[in-house]
Specification:
By secondary structure, the chain is of the alpha/beta class. The protein is built from nine helices and 23 strands. 26% of the residues lie in helices and 28% in strands. The longest helix has 15 residues, at 325-339.
Length: 376
Amino acid sequence: MKIVNAQIFTGEGFRKGQVAFNEKIQDVIFTEEKNEESQEGDFVDGENGYLIPGLIDVHTHAAMNEDASDGSEAGLQKMSRYYAEEGVTTFIPTTLTLPQENLKKAILAAGKVKGKEAGAKIGGVHLEGPFISMEKRGAQNPEHIRKPDIDLFKGLVEVVPGLIKLITMAPETEGAIEFIKEASKLCRVSLGHTACDYDTAMKGFDAGASHITHLYNAMPSLLHRDPGLIAAAVDAGAEAEIISDGLHSHPSMVRIAHKLFGRNLILISDSIRCAGMPDGEYELGGLPVTLKNGKATVSGTDTIAGSTIHLMEGMRRCVSFGIPLADAVYAAATRPAISLGMEEEIGSIKEGCYADMVLIDENLKVKSVFINGRVM
């Protein structure tokens, strides 16, 4: 199979060319000349559209009225199909702050579906909690918040060895720094849902944390005499996730994040059950959620519960906020792959990577999606 006459993402920008592939990418050739070969059979004419790596969402809870925390294989498959239709070719099912048994069930379900997905591939699991701050819990259920427990965590890791890729936790809680030292040997540790100050955050990074969860949200603001987690993450060279839906953060703050973190910025959806669904009443980790006009809040409050978009829409909005397209693609595909330690498999259009690619038009609308070389 070949895709010809496309503007191919290079990691830095776009160059016209063609890509040959089967399950994996075989060859990438850059040429300014239009390829006149037949469009029948094994050729797809890109019609000068953008050919980008499939997007990778490292923080998504749910969509289409299904939730990764339900521990439902059928639900994960429904989410997988939804993501694939929208140009997300790998996703990391993200759990909520829940009891240990619920978390085990969710991990086990993801492990059973991995490798048998109907659409987007499962790249691992992200545990958002339960070792978070009560003060900055956001829309997480306070009943299930607990102190860091390395034995509990190791028990979750052992449910499906190697599947947990990321855990979000608060570094100021009792025993957190020692926990980070041990947990960071098993997966990436992200600081989030935290009220920590700058010094505590730096202790967390020194102990092995290397990531922060949904920048600006569920953490102290960046203040000139109390810089907090955000400044510590910049100083430590950590990665920073951001939800670019325009509701969780003002577009100006997305631009500032891009300037602060550069190629360490990762776009995420942080989508919840009502993503892809009409206005109405939903649920998040046992808490009632109301969706109205695209905004999901904990019912009866102004607390944003999570996003209602998929990552491709987040990337489009990011570009509309003024972020260059190449940088937005890098933050939605290439940097997430690096974060997962999977950069030689996904996240780039280069020889040897899986042929997970998306062809988009000049308006950044999806035209075609390829996963492991198969047209979805």
